[in-house]
Amino acid sequence: MGLYTDLVDLGAMEHIINATVKFVKKELEGAEGGHDWWHIHRVWQRSKLIAQKEKADLLVVELGALLHDIADAKFHDGNEEIGPVKAVAFMQTQNIPAGTIKHVENIIRHISFKGGNNAREFYSPELGIVQDADRLDALGAIGIARAFNYGGFKNRPLYDPAIKPRLQMTREEYKASTAPTINHFYEKLLLLKDRMNTATGKALAEEKHAFMETFLEKFYEEWEGA
């Protein structure tokens, strides 16, 4: 159901997407394994899948998916401006309409979870699609692998029974958290199923969520060396 923008012909769009893929691959060389090119690739492919059933501008969807993590604030001392600025600067080299650039910039600025308690300041069907695709990559087997990969990258403990998950953190507290990786399941990952935007996203999230619950049951069963 997704529609290509009327402002860019299909040949030009293919050129833009190919150039964006090349740019993103180059920018993310050596990135942490949960936020590397393959994360982007999965979000991009899943965004296109979801967009098949939604009315949305596919150029915005694809650019939003490809550029959403071009400079994740987690890896830039919490600076949330680097990603949008870098994405906009690239898009301006590709003869992309100004309205499309602004839309993609808004997706990048508003896609993140950030504790889940921040008020929604911007929304569009395209953001909903890319956000669902990004959140789906935080669920299921890949989501588990990404969580522990990032925890290892930050040298965080797997689990500490004495440190309880915090469900009502502010945006600043969430960004500053150094809690064990298992806490992240409760503070973010297990909350995502009920925060999907699209019917397709909600359906895909159900199975992935159930898999994570099964994993946690086995984790606790084995924690004491059983």
Automatic annotation (TrEMBL):
Record-annotated HD domain positions: 36-139
InterPro entries with a match to the protein in the record: HD/PDEase_dom, HD_domain
Short name of one Pfam family: HD
Name this polypeptide is given: HD domain-containing protein
Source species taxonomy: Bacteria, Pseudomonadati, Bacteroidota, Chitinophagia, Chitinophagales
